[in-house]
Each structure stands twice: as structure tokens, then as C-alpha cells.
Amino acid sequence: MQLLATTNGGLESVAAAELRELTGAEATRHHRGVVAFEGTVEDVYELHYRARSLHRIMAVLVDTPVAGLDDIYATTADMPVADRLPEATFGVVGTRHGTHEFTSMDVADRVGQAVIDAYREATGTRLPVDLDDPTVRLEAYLYDERFTLAVDLTGESLHRRPYRVCEHDAPLRGTLAYQLLRLADYSADDRLVDPMAGSATIPIEAALDATDAVPRPDLDPAFTVLPRFDGDRFRRRRAAHTRREAAVDITARDNQTQWRECARENREAAGFEDEVDIVAADAREASLDADCVVTNLPFGIRVTGDLRRLYSEFAERVTDGSVDRLVALTTKPGLLPLSPDEQHDIPYGRIDASVIVWRR
Predict the structure, then answer these.
(1) Is the domain of 285 the same as that of 180?
(2) Does residue 134 lie within any of the structural domains?
(3) Which of 7, 196, 264, 338 is disulfide-compatible with 15, CB 3.0–4.6 A?
(4) What's the pLDDT at 230?
């Protein structure tokens, strides 16, 4: 089965590495924020309770070059629609990149009409459309001449971690936090410090990874309504998966009482009171003794005072300490006086950011 998975743009290679680890699949970049790979129904089940870097998984229905809207309609109508979709409400999201004489909405409209026509011809039933809250969500991608149509298997995004009961002013997605940890080559044996931890997303994701805990135990995936998939089998597999025991050394530091209290709420919700230490410390002053330092550096709205001084004094703590690897997310990479071994440029909400990887 041909599958797509969405992830944080610019870090597709990190998602591909996780997919290889979990399923053995060799994923390739389909387009920004999306990777393509081959997998089985069992892989779909496993990814929905073990994947940490993925947002949404989709099964490909059509993947072919097209010349225009007529081809989009024809290739969609030619697929065995009644075999792949249930009799339920559906909606189409269109995404178009390149030079075309039509819009993304036109792509979605032609796909939707083709699905309606093909399903009615096969079954005599007209599928109802619901663009706001459909039971089945279709993604139609047109990148230049390449048309890909896929059905969403996930539903609510996998990045919505249930432990996030207290949000920071500048929240970090759990999927992105995990990808920062992978770039740091974090393992359960490492001493990990996040010196500007905020609500502790990075330390909690480290604990989830170290113990192989399910990141979305509350998920009711969209594939349970689709032909070929068995919701009960998925739920049995997920329920049988247990955390492993791991003696970890994970510390979340922050100099603001408000965020330390927030971090404690999230730590308790995740069930990691024994795994994650939360301490008061100023990143400009506190010494660092860690294998990995992974953090989301403050920027504009998150900090008052001189950012350059903050970044400079933090960098001194890194180089003066016994830090082996540093991974930092920042919107101001030029302010960090370290020569990175890697730099990954990513979108961060509506602004541009960089992930800096430094090794001693």
C-alpha cells in the first residue's frame, strides 16, 4: 500500500528515519512536510500508536501525471471508489503548487465531483458532502503535473498530545520536540537538560521516547470507518503495548515560577513525576553538565531584555560546561555565537526558524 505522512516541514529526513526504524520502509520526500513510503495495514496500526514525528498518515488512491482538470476528474473517477470509501460524508482539501490556470479549490471541486459520480455509478448512492466535519477526508495534491489523491487515515492530528493540559505562551509541538531530540541523537542513557523548558514539552517527549510510551493513547483514528481496516484489532494492539522501564536522567529548567508550575501539570498528566526533574535555574548563569542539551530558545514575544546577551551567555554555559551535543530551535540563529555542525531551516507557525545542531 502506498502511504503518505505529514510532518514538520524541513525535517522530512527525521520523519523518514523514524519510519525506517518502525516499519523498515524507505521513505522519500513527496513535497514539503510530506513523505511517501510503502506499508501494510499492520504498519498503519503501529504508526498510529508509536510514531512521534508524524502528524497525519494517508493512503494513496491516485498518483499520476495529469495535464489539467479533465485528467484529474478522469483519474479520480477511474479508481475503485466504492471499494476504498464507505457510504459516509466526505470532504476534499485541495493543495496546488506550480503554474496552472485554475485554483486549489478547482482541484478539490473536480475531485469531489468525480468521487460523487463514480460512487453513484457503482452503487446507485450519492455520497453526501461535508466540508466542515466530514467522516472521510480526502487530500488532493497537485504539484506541477503530479496529481496525488489520498484518504486521511488519522483524523485528529497525532501532534495533539493529551498531556498538554497547560500551554506555554509560545507552545512547541510534541512532534517537533521529538525531532529535536532525534537530531541530538538522544537515547535513554543520556543525561538530558532543557535549560529553557517552559511547559516541559521537550523533557516529556524525551521520557515518552525513552520508555517507548504511546504518545496518543486517546486517539480514535479515522481509518476505523474505512474498508480494509479493523478498528478493534488496532485498539487491541495499542492496549497490549506497555511502557518499558528506563532509568533516565532528564531535567527541565526554567527561571519563571509560572512555567515551572505549568511543567509540573504536564509532567503529572503524562505520568512522568519520577522521570522528569523540574528545577529553578537561569540559563544565563546555571552550569551545564549533560550529554544532550535540547531547547527552544526564547525570541521576541517570549523574553524581555537583550536577546543577544541572553544567547551569548547561554552559549558560554554550553561551551564552558560538559555538553556533548546541543540542539536549539531559534528564530534568531545569527545571535547564537556557536558554529553549527548542521542547520535545518523550518517554518515555525508564520515565521521562519532554524534548528541548530552543535557537537563538541
Answers:
(1) yes
(2) yes
(3) 7
(4) 97
